[in-house]
Design a protein that fits this description.
It contains 7 helices and 4 strands. By secondary structure, the protein is an alpha+beta fold. It has one domain: H-NOX domain. It has a 4-stranded antiparallel beta sheet. Strand 1 and strand 2 form a beta hairpin. Helix 1 crosses helix 4. It is globular and about 50 Å long.
């Protein structure tokens, strides 16, 4: 990444903000479902791992200009670890009931973000759907290059992930990484449907890889 603040940094920062917007929705809806305990759990995680950005934050004033790459990497780590820890604590207390609520939240948020992106983007091919998805979902730094596109046609795109960057955050806080994959799959599937109902999304854990497919109906 460039040593000077540019479009790629704003692009990545926006993905962090989308990720934290999901977190805000998760907290709000869990509070509605389980009342005051959620606020206490969330405040504990913010204190331990760091707070999300305030609404309306400006990247140019927030970022460390002498450490752009390191600052963005740190903000990703803070956001992912805090969210994983919070979800783990909520599930530990509310079990399957919490899991059901979390699944529905991820479906709703993914659909909403897909519908919003639909208003601005062209998504007539599987590759265009993939590109818009990549603009909206947090997947490490661009230099990590974790997504390997192995097949790309107009009606089909497959990408494999051999090194999941999210796993370490979930494992660090003793959260169930398999449930992370469930939530992520629901979010992406709903995003794709909200973006273009002519495509479906499938995810499979296979031979140590995460196989992702965008398929025209």
């Amino acid at each position: 990444m460039s040593a000077f603040l540019g479009p790629i940094h704003h692009w990545l920062f926006n993905k962090v903000l989308i990720f934290e917007d999901l977190e805000t929705v998760v907290v709000r809806k869990l509070e509605k479902e389980f009342k005051e305990d959620i606020s206490k759990i969330y405040e504990e995680q913010k204190k331990k791992y760091g707070a999300p950005f305030e609404k309306g934050v400006n990247l140019e004033t927030a970022i460390q200009h002498d450490n752009i790459h390191g600052w963005l990497q740190q903000r990703i780590e803070i956001a992912e670890t805090r969210q994983a820890a919070f979800i783990a604590k909520v599930i530990d207390k509310y079990k399957e009931e919490a899991k059901a609520v979390l699944k529905e939240i991820h479906r709703e948020h993914g659909r909403k973000m897909g519908e919003q992106a639909k208003e601005k983007e062209s998504t007539g091919t599987a590759e265009e759907v993939y590109q818009v998805l990549n603009d909206n979902i947090l997947d490490g730094m661009p230099c990590d290059q974790v997504n390997n596109v192995v097949e790309n046609r107009q009606d089909y795109l497959r990408w494999d992930v051999t090194n999941c960057l999210h796993r370490r955050y979930w494992e660090a806080v003793k959260a169930d990484v398999q449930f992370f994959y469930v939530l992520r799959g629901l979010w992406i599937g709903s995003f794709v449907k909200g973006l273009n109902k002519g495509f479906d999304y499938k995810m499979e854990l296979k031979d140590g890889k995460i196989v992702n497919e965008i398929i025209a109906k």
